[in-house]
């Protein structure tokens, strides 16, 4: 009873310790969750907390100050402010990571304490249950054990309630964090809205600047209109421009013809290359098909041969088995007769029966020698067949390895072709983009040339009008002092003093005595026209080169696509051949298994024969003795 009382005291002490541990854990959990749930510092913070605000509040204050600074009329945020914002964001991220690690550590500690509590509760319940079972009915120890068991059950229930409460608190915490994230997103949206308003203001300023530029452009157009009135001096260059335009048109026509011829040639070469590649691939496919047919025929022939050999071996094994069984029966009958004879000899009849026994022993020895010779012949034939089958298996494995090697090479070729096709596709896209850019440049040059032609036509019309309006000016003498801006043209046609055009040039120079800047403007315009013409020629050449490259790329892409298709077909053929080889291997394995079973049966028969021989040997030795 004292021991039981001591056990009951220990159990009550365990219950008190468990209740204290549960209370401590719950208090610690309450403090941790209260600290995490508090959005602001406590009214009585530590000196370090009083001196340093939280990182999130500092970041919000800095961001608010930066947003106010961005909305100020000064303009954009400086690089120093951006660096400071980045540093604060990095510090905020580090603090968040540190807080997450601390929460993980707390959760792990709580889980460990819960596991300990569960273990202690289980031990308490177990000990209480044992004490209740061991204690006599109606005694105080029985009652105390039942109370301890009830206390353990209540503690377990309290533990479950605490775990559910913890889960609910974690859910509340996650919801609060989501609310905080939503508030942060709202603040981010507000800041982005402020930035958008600033960008809108900047765009408005740009629009005002664009209006000012349009006004300035209109003034420039007016000045250009005034300067166009002074282009009467362009008649001497008009004829040269006509010639150059005609030459350019002829060059364009010639380049177009050259382009067509070159494209035809490139297409023919690409077509020839493609045909050669297709022919080579068809030859390769035909070779592979022939090899496949040969392999299939060989495998079928080998399979039939192996099946026939297996059937013959099975038939021979059955015949040998029947013969051995017959011999065993004969040996058993002889053994029975020998046993009868031995009994007769042992009973006293020793005369002629001993001689008969000796003769029978001799006949048995001769039969045994004959049987051993037959068995050795059968064994040698079976071993030869096994060696032949092993050789055939090695040859089949070698062929299978060669086929796998060919399949791997075909797969690698197909993969390489696919990679080349991808590279050519990317190159084609870049080439198409460059072609589009060059085409846009050519269109711009064409528009500029058309504008130059229109301006030239207008100059011609104005010149004709002035010619009709002032017919008497043609008779004036040409003063050399009035031509300070005469120059040699780039097209080698300025030497026209002996032609009638010199009179018109003199007329233009007389009409522009007081217009020195207008002559400079004309020179600038002529230089710009010549530059545009050279750019036009260069653009045409570039267009022809790009078109030829595009045609070549298209031909290469077509060839690669066909090669990839052929590679895919070859890969499919290889997979099919692999499946056929696997099927042949399975059949070969089945034949080998059948042969192994037959060889096992033969070995068993050999063992039986050896046992019979041993029995006969023992019987003969006994009879001789």
Automatic annotation (TrEMBL):
<keyword id="KW-0333">Golgi apparatus</keyword>
<feature type="domain" description="TATA element modulatory factor 1 TATA binding">
    <location>
        <begin position="509"/>
        <end position="622"/>
    </location>
</feature>
<dbReference type="GO" id="GO:0005783">
    <property type="term" value="C:endoplasmic reticulum"/>
</dbReference>
<protein>
    <submittedName>
        <fullName>Putative m protein repeat protein</fullName>
    </submittedName>
</protein>
<feature type="coiled-coil region">
    <location>
        <begin position="354"/>
        <end position="469"/>
    </location>
</feature>
<dbReference type="InterPro" id="IPR022092">
    <property type="entry name" value="TMF_DNA-bd"/>
</dbReference>
<keyword id="KW-0175">Coiled coil</keyword>
<dbReference type="GO" id="GO:0005794">
    <property type="term" value="C:Golgi apparatus"/>
</dbReference>
<dbReference type="Pfam" id="PF12329">
    <property type="entry name" value="TMF_DNA_bd"/>
</dbReference>
<feature type="coiled-coil region">
    <location>
        <begin position="522"/>
        <end position="622"/>
    </location>
</feature>
<feature type="compositionally biased region" description="Low complexity">
    <location>
        <begin position="47"/>
        <end position="58"/>
    </location>
</feature>
<feature type="region of interest" description="Disordered">
    <location>
        <begin position="28"/>
        <end position="80"/>
    </location>
</feature>
<dbReference type="InterPro" id="IPR052602">
    <property type="entry name" value="Growth_transcription_reg"/>
</dbReference>
<dbReference type="InterPro" id="IPR022091">
    <property type="entry name" value="TMF_TATA-bd"/>
</dbReference>
<feature type="coiled-coil region">
    <location>
        <begin position="186"/>
        <end position="323"/>
    </location>
</feature>
<dbReference type="Pfam" id="PF12325">
    <property type="entry name" value="TMF_TATA_bd"/>
</dbReference>
